[in-house]
Design goal:
The chain has three helices and no strands. It is mainly α.
Length: about 55
């Protein structure tokens, strides 16, 4: 039986910078998914949080 790894946690500055890059068109969502191994749902959640100001 294998042990599960702990959940990855991302810092607030990382999330904010990634969202700003996506909104500015510097980085596409798919490129962000591939380069950082993130899910599309997680990126959408972060973009919504940044847009509404929720943390």
């Amino acid at each position: 039986m294998t042990t599960r790894s702990s959940y990855r946690r991302h810092s607030a500055p990382f999330k904010l910078q990634l969202c700003q890059d996506i909104r500015a068109g510097v980085l596409g969502r798919r490129d962000a998914q591939r380069s950082h191994s993130l899910s599309a749902n997680l990126i959408q959640l972060w973009l919504t949080e940044v847009l509404t100001g929720a943390s």
